[in-house]
Design brief:
Number of helices: 12
Largest sheet: 7 strands, mixed
Number of strands: 11
Order of helices and strands: EHEHEHEEHEHEHEHEHHHHEEH
Helix content: 25-40%
Strand content: 15-25%
Shape: globular
Bound molecules: D-malate
Distance between the termini: 37 Å
Radius of gyration: 17 Å
Oligomer: single chain
């Protein structure tokens, strides 16, 4: 069976995904700064699952029904404060360094961020949706190699309405690891672009990411500047993170993706 490898760079592209048949496609969503890096860190430190939701109100209503669920997320990059959330400050922001085992171990988290959660939801109809980051890149690549999905679509979450440099670098790094598997198939120019950009920048990823729009924004914030170096570390966590059909992000076990690929199932939008 021929394989395809494609990268989507900007939010405008994932907004059009409702028109695509993704039932035979595995999506990998990258929000390197910071949503997918943060979710991977949360799982690596023992969170039981993360429910990505688009709106603050959705997170609050989950908390009302399930008081044990932690609320996490950002607006304008910083933790959601009480004035945006009906008087209730969120427990955590979107900095991966906040998600320590002490704070989130054994807990479920409802999380809302600007772009990352939107991108995950846009991919929901796919056969499988994985979360990509530098922090779990090797494990994700190995998993995809084992499962060998025919169609692989790497989705860059972007920043507001624009492409984000660090997401394209993350997607390019995954393209590079998987190149031997996919280069004999139909490789979209977008995958070539992402891979070449990664090869150009790989010697000093931190410098490259620091100069991105998101990187500059975080570096200028005293409490968040270290997030940039944190999120550019390679292979800190040997885990594969997946958005399940029930809308929950959790650690993936090898068999479930292969079971989903080729099955014409539909994933419901992340639910409570
Ligand atoms: C997002 O989802 O847009 C980002 O993760 C924003 C951020 O860095 O907090």
């Amino acid at each position: 069976m021929p394989t395809t490898l494609e990268v989507q760079f900007a939010p405008a592209e994932y907004a059009l995904m409702t028109g695509r048949d993704l039932r035979q496609t595995v999506c990998v969503v990258f929000d390197v700064l910071r949503a997918t890096s943060t979710m991977v860190t949360a799982l690596g430190h023992g969170a039981t699952g993360i429910l990505p939701v688009a709106e603050i109100a959705e997170a609050l209503s989950i908390r009302q029904r399930r008081p044990e669920v932690l609320l996490a997320g950002e607006r304008d990059g910083v933790r959601i404060e009480a004035n945006l959330a009906g008087g209730r400050e969120f427990d955590l922001g979107n900095s991966p360094r906040e998600f320590t085992a002490e704070r989130i171990g054994g807990r479920a988290i409802a999380m809302t961020t600007t772009n990352g959660t939107r991108a995950l939801r846009a991919c929901a109809p796919a056969a499988a949706v994985l979360l990509g980051s530098f922090l779990n890149l090797g494990a994700t690549a190995e998993f995809i190699e084992q499962q060998a999905p025919p169609n692989l679509l790497l989705v860059c979450s972007g920043t507001l309405d624009q492409a984000a440099y660090e997401d394209v670098l993350g997607a390019g790094a995954l393209c590079d690891l998987l190149w031997p598997k996919y280069c004999g198939g139909m490789v979209a120019d977008s995958a070539q672009i992402a891979r070449r950009l990664f090869l150009l920048e790989q010697k000093d990823l931190l410098a490259a990411v620091s100069q991105s729009r998101n990187g500059r924004r975080l570096m200028a914030h005293p409490d968040l500047s270290e997030d940039v170096s944190f999120c550019t570390q390679r292979d800190v966590f040997r885990l594969v993170a997946e958005l399940g059909k029930d809308g929950l992000v959790r650690i993936r076990t090898p068999d479930a993706v292969s079971a989903q690929v080729g099955v014409a199932g539909s994933r419901t939008a992340p639910a409570e």
